[in-house]
Amino acid sequence: VKVKIPFGNKYLDAIFSVPEKKPTYGVILTHGAGGDMNFPHLVSLAAYLASHGVLCLRFTCKGLNVAYRSKAFKAVVGYLKLSDDYKLSGVFLAGRSMGSRAAASVIRQLSQGDDDDDDGFIQGLVCLSYPLHRPKLQSKLRDEDLLLISCPVLFVSGSADEMCEKQLLEGVVSKMKAPKKIHWVDKANHGMAVKGRTTNDVMEEINVQVFSWLRENVQLQHK
After folding, report:
1. What confidence tier does 8 reach under pLDDT thresholds 50, 70, 90?
2. 158 pairs with which residues across the strands?
3. Which InterPro entries match (predicted)?
4. Pair 131, 142: CB distance under 8 Å
């Protein structure tokens, strides 16, 4: 289902992947610095989640500024929260690369915000290929938002990601207060390409991981 989400004086293009049964949980998903919501990995994940009963709303926001992307993400969260078509108990924010930075930033802002937005609607964060540092610039880590988040976080990263060195991410994760999990895709680069494996094969691995983590976290909150 294609929708246009109001954002300032513009609209963001978005697509709902809707499960057959009425969903109680959703995932809001966005792309990295290049590409848009039709990036194959996002399409694959959205279809997988919808087929397993999770609503997925993916959107395009072309800005290359994280603050701008975060504002857009916030607008989408607000839109879904007030949606009459889908009454959800909660959502997980998910993004690929720069999109995951924007998602982390939104969660930090809402949890520290004075606007009382932290009512438990946002259940967790999924970071696909989180860009922890620029290639070859390991001294400057983009970890400030991660260290201030308290909701559950899943990282799915390639062990050969040139923007997220394995030891560095493990170091950051060990300092995080939030419940967290890392799934390493063996030998995958930042674009999740692995020599000798098809994209579909890699995506299947990622999709299964993301869904099982979502399911665990939904169950934890309802015990």
Report:
1. confident
2. 185
3. AB_hydrolase_fold (IPR029058), KANL3/Tex30_Abhydrolase (IPR046879), NSL3/Tex30 (IPR026555)
4. yes
Residue type, 120: G
Of residues 118, 132, 18, the one with CA closest to residue 77 = 118
Residues near 181 by beta carbon (within 8 Å), at least 6 away in sequence: 152, 153, 154, 155, 213
Superfamily of domain 2-221: Alpha/Beta hydrolase fold, catalytic domain (3.40.50.1820)
Cα–Cα distances (Å) from 194 to 42, 93, 184, 214, in that order, read 17, 26, 12, 25
pLDDT tens by residue, 14-70 = 999 999 988 889 999 999 988 899 999 999 999 999 999 999 999 999 887 889 999
Contact status, residue 27 vs residue 94, Cβ threshold 8 Å? yes
Helix axes 98-112, 66-81, angle to 10 degrees: 70
Of 149, 125, 98, whose CA–CA distance to 214 is shortest? 125
Q: Measuring CA to CA, how many Å separate 167 from each of 82, 131, 219?
A: 41, 14, 30
Q: Which residues contact 62 (CB under 8 A, 6 or more apart)?
A: 36
Looking at residue 77, its pLDDT comes to 92
* 201-213: pLDDT as tens digits: 999 999 999 999 9
Q: Would you list the domain boundaries of the chain? A: 2-221
